[in-house]
Amino acid sequence: MKAYAMLGLNETGWIHKDDPVCGPLDAICRPVALAPCTSDVHTVWEGAIGDRHNLVLGHEGVGEVVQVGGLVKDFAPGDVVIMPAITPDWGSREAQRGYSVHSGGMLGGWKFSNGKDGVFAEKIHINEADANLALLPKEISPETGCMLPDMMPTGFHASEMAKVTFGESVAVIGIGPVGLMCLRGAVLRGASRVIGVGSRPICVEVARKYGATDIISYKDGPIDDQILEMTEGEGVDRVLIAGGDVDTFAPAIRMLKPGGAIGNVNYLGSGDYVKIPRLDWGVGMGHKTIHGGLMPGGRLRMERLASMIVHGRVDPSLMITHRFEGFEHIEDAIKLMKDKPRDLIKPVVFI
Ligand code: NDP
Ligand code: ZN
After folding, report:
1. Is the CB of 173 under 6 A from ligand 1?
2. Which of 140, 157, 172, 176 has the greatest count of CB atoms below 10 A from its CB?
3. Weakest mean pLDDT among 41-50, 148-157, 208-217
């Protein structure tokens, strides 16, 4: 099969690989629509998870089932499905402990474009199909469906981790596609004031549509100073992080009220340590909690989030700014994601 891969650090290209083999619990899909992720960029151009050779990229896509294993009950060839970015081993001890995303070891549920070949291929292998695939509802187009494997579950996870609740104030650092879903998640969980941090005008426009009450830019001075000034020195109840780097935690802690929490979904692609400012952390006693997590995947999560689109709670199609037709355009889409032009939020490739 033909596939688009990380050839090595800083290098991508087309390769041929053997077709994947379908085990008794598994499925093989062909791609219907695909999207590249900023995480693919961290992986290739920052070497964030180490050097990889001929690893097929991509973990966001809608597919059509072409083959199922003998023990698969709920899916059949012809079904159009959401292929989640995270496909855990549901029988693992980590899954039984409630952390399926870490099945088989830390981040082990993240298989596509990390532990095994990703979805930018003519044939895609899905482990434990009954537990990891979800039917794409007919009300959702395949291109909008591409926001379900990763953008929605990741963004929403930030406010789940930070436990945003009614009337709270929330700062969302980063309003790319992940941050926009953080922001919408916070609004849906009942936040009152929601301050987005970013500079691309197209992202600012969509952030306002999703319910941002204020927008600031990290280019206009330290964000902690700006947010403390806007809140009369009090800070915010929750901070969601979907942009910046290892140095973003210090201002995030400073702008947080005592008792507040940070939900980080940013993939820290470089830097060895995250520094916690001692005084702003209440000299160790400020009750300021830091959570960081990979999005939960699997079928139920996909079905629930898809139902939120069907019932009008969120419209992730607002984030799709670039559309391509044809598998060969994967290359253009991932390069866009790397270059991040000012008019980009998210590209999708219809196969
Ligand atoms: P984008 O690059 O599109 O967005 C990043 C955002 O952060 C932009 O709004 C950008 O502003 C802003 N930003 C950049 N630098 C700073 C800074 N120094 N301080 C504050 N804000 C800053 O990325 P995505 O939305 O696609 O992805 C966000 C992160 O989420 C990535 O690291 C990605 O790898 C990660 N991710 C994590 C997953 C998980 O499960 N935990 C899954 C998927 C992705 P500007 O408007 O100027 O561009
Ligand atoms: Zn991703």
Report:
1. yes
2. 172
3. 41-50
62-119 pLDDT tens trace: 999 999 999 999 999 999 999 999 999 999 999 999 999 999 999 999 999 999 999 9
Q: Give the span between the Cα atoms of 334 and 340, in whole angstroms.
A: 10
Q: Which domains does the chain have, with CATH numbers?
A: 2-150+295-350 (3.90.180.10), 154-292 (3.40.50.720)
pLDDT, position 50 = 86
How far apart are alpha carbons 330 and 351 in whole angstroms?
A: 9
CA of 38 to the centre of ligand 1 (A): 8
- Stretch 166-174: mean pLDDT: 98
Distance in Å, CA 109 to ligand 1 centroid? 22
43 lines ligand 1 (CB under 6 A): no
Ligand 2 centre to CA of 85 (Å) is: 7
Single-letter amino acid code for the residue at 202: I
Residue type, 335: K
Nearest CA to ligand 1 atom 23: 176
Which amino acid, one-letter code, is at 218?
Answer: Y
**DSSP element (H, E) containing 209:** helix 201-210
Contact residues for 125 (Cβ-Cβ < 8 A; gap 6+): 20, 21, 22, 26, 27, 28, 116, 117
Distance 41 CA to ligand 2 centre (A): 10
> Ligand 1: which of 215, 267, 342 to mutate, most ligand atoms within 8 Å of CB?
267
* Amino acid at residue number 271: G
Strands (E), the chain: 2-8, 11-16, 27-35, 55-56, 60-68, 80-83, 124-126, 134-135, 170-173, 194-197, 214-216, 236-241, 256-264, 289-292, 320-325, 346-350
Q: Which two tokens stand for residue 240?
A: 């969601």
